[in-house]
Design a protein that fits this description.
Length: about 325
């Protein structure tokens, strides 16, 4: 199956390239070496080399208004092989006007893209909503972006709601979302987003699930800062009035053209994960498309007296 997908991908690239120079292939790989330094006495210290993700993509500009993009995500899945290929993006983009843009097919979702882009280190760790599985990064459906002004953009999405690794379930209920992004200044952006998952049964103990998100992103010459707060109501459409909350904050400081210090803290104590996550390290830009980062990642359970589980990582991203 993997060989079939890779051959198909190669055939698509060759076919498009034969028509002209409007197509752009892309490859991105996330790999790391990690070492568990929290092992207790007489325990084996776990260590490994990993390739966490490989993305194979191709985008093609059809004309001034239409473009298309396809991306295969090669990674691990429970019950599959260590490297299983998934169709992550297969979208058609239409620039309907100078203000309105529509995407349809297997599209990237709007739930946490703002924060993921602001965090900028997906090769080290996912952004908070992705990491704790509150939303999917891609899904089948339609998204729309409307530019009200140079500083203000609104967006909406209607999705299957199952993510790109599953098909629509038997209920056929869509997952929706509305968002607004406001550029406060050239360095500071604000985003608000509401995600809605309709309930599957109508009883006194169930209700539709809502995820409300507020995010801020500051990007200066040398310093950047991001903050995201999320509130989940009526978790999994099962328990009405049950609430969960999630907070993530990060910062980075660019020492020079090559080196950047970074840190991040996630408060997931009020989620089903019941813990907190910390990461800090230094990143080096080796050359264009090649980045390496030495960092410490820690997870601490919310239970009183819990000790942090510390893992040393050397992460590598290479792309073109």
């Amino acid at each position: 199956m993997k060989n079939t997908i890779l051959l198909l991908f190669s055939a698509v690239v060759i076919a498009f390239n034969s028509k002209g120079q409007n197509g752009v292939p892309s490859i991105k790989v996330f790999s790391n070496f990690n070492y568990n330094i929290s092992a207790k006495e007489n325990e084996n210290v776990f260590k490994e080399f990993e390739i966490k993700r490989s993305y194979l993509g191709y985008s093609y500009q059809i004309d001034d208004k239409f473009s298309t993009k396809i991306t295969f995500d090669v990674g691990s899945i429970n019950g599959g092989s260590s490297y299983t290929a998934f169709l992550k993006i297969a979208s058609l983009k239409w620039m309907a006007s100078n203000k309105l843009t529509l995407n349809t097919g297997m599209v990237g979702t709007k739930n946490f893209k703002f924060m993921e882009k602001s965090w900028g280190r997906r090769y080290i760790e996912k952004s908070a909503q992705d990491k704790y599985k509150w939303a999917n990064s891609a899904d089948l459906g339609v998204t729309a972006d409307y530019k009200i002004s140079d500083n203000l953009t609104i967006d909406a999405q209607i999705l299957n709601g199952e993510g790109y690794k599953k098909v629509q379930d038997e209920t056929g209920l869509f997952r929706g979302g509305l968002g607004i992004t406001y550029k406060i200044s050239t360095k500071l952006d604000l985003r608000l987003h509401q995600d809605i998952s309709p309930r599957k049964t109508y009883t006194d103990s169930t209700d539709s699930q809502y995820i409300s998100t507020a995010s801020l992103a500051y990007s200066g010459t040398s310093f950047s800062l991001g903050y995201e707060a999320c509130l989940l109501q009526n978790a999994d459409n099962i328990i009405a009035d049950e609430e969960k909350s999630l907070m993530s904050i990060y910062a980075s400081y660019k020492l020079n053209e090559d080196y950047t210090l970074f840190a991040r803290y996630d408060d997931a104590t009020e989620t089903s994960n019941e813990g907190s996550y910390t990461i800090y390290g230094i990143e080096r830009q080796m050359t264009k498309g090649v980045t390496i980062a030495l960092n410490m990642q820690s997870w601490t359970n919310a239970a009183d007296g819990s000790e942090a589980e510390n893992t040393l990582y050397l992460n590598l991203e290479y792309k073109f």
